[in-house]
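Predict the 3D structure for this chain.
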Amino acid sequence: MSKGDDIDAIIQGGIVWGRGGSDRPDDSGKPKTKAKKKAYITGAHGSGSARQKAKYREQRRKRNQ
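Done. Predicted structure below.
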């Protein structure tokens, strides 16, 4: 193949990056961040910041009912 043939092949077929699938298992349904976990949302894990945020969430929930 010459240089021109390579370019023609790229134009016709395109460039495919990263062939092959992901080897990671599917974690759908699991919380991906601390902020989505029940203990963190309710402030039960002991962090003052999380307890304060939970208090604000509760106030907002009561206000929007």
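Residues 39 and 45 are 6 Å apart (CA to CA).
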